[in-house]
Amino acid sequence: MPKVYIINTNKANNPQDETDMISNMKCSAYYSPWKHYIDTIEANDIVYLYSSEVGIIARGIATGIVEIADYKGDKDAEHYMHLDRFQSLKAPLIASKVTDILSEAADDKYKIQWNQTMILVAYSLGLKVWQHITKDCI
After folding, report:
1. pLDDT tens figures, 90-111
2. SS3 at position 14
3. For 23-38, what is the mean pLDDT?
4. What residues pair up with 55 in beta bridges, in sequence order?
5. CB–CB of 3/47 below 8 Å?
6. 122 Cβ contact partners less than 8 Å away, ≥ 6 residues apart
7. Residue 65 Cα to chain centre, angstroms
8. Euclidean distance between the first and the last CA atom of the chain, given in angstroms as a whole number
9. pLDDT on residue 108
10. Which DSSP state fits 53?
11. What is each CA distance from 78 to 27, 52, 75, 90, 115, in whole angstroms?
């Protein structure tokens, strides 16, 4: 069963990382232990890119192929994965709206701690976010 991930674009630490992810249609994480989170993403998982203080800004479907690169002169410090069906959102989906969609789908109060590198969301709930984006943000 596919999974759904919300990946932070690392804008707070380096705004160029977000630009790189969007330009190269990928999700990334940097340094241990965070870079290893990318290694858990499998083919056909849904990935949302989340920009701090903005919201979800892009989405795609994981290829399942982890690639490794040097980062800021540090060997193998970046793990990344390209995303198929990649789309940047015309209008970001703000964190509170994501929480509302998930709460409604779960029929319960849903809480997300947004200051994480990667957030796992139940597939059935994350699919509701995909549907909302398709309808209202693309």
Report:
1. 999 999 999 999 999 998 888 8
2. coil
3. 97
4. 51
5. no
6. 4, 106
7. 16
8. 26
9. 84
10. T
11. 10, 19, 8, 28, 19
Summarize pLDDT for 63-83 with one digit per residue, the tens.
Answer: 999 999 999 999 999 999 999
Among 68, 85, 86, 84, smallest CA distance to 31 is for 68
Average pLDDT over residues 120-125: 95
What pTM was computed for the model?
A: 0.96
- Give percent helix, percent strand, percent coil of the chain, each to the nearest 5: 30, 40, 30
DSSP type of residue 31: S
* Angle subtended by helix axes 95-106 and 123-136, to nearest 10: 130
Where b means 16+ CB within 10 Å and e means fewer, 60-86 reads: bbbbeebeeeebeeeeebbbbbbbeeb
The structure tokens listed for 21 are 């992810």
Pairing of strands 46-51, 55-71: antiparallel
d(CA 134, CA 111) in angstroms, rounded, equals 23
Structure tokens at 30: 């940097």
Q: Residue 109 belongs to what H/E stretch?
A: none
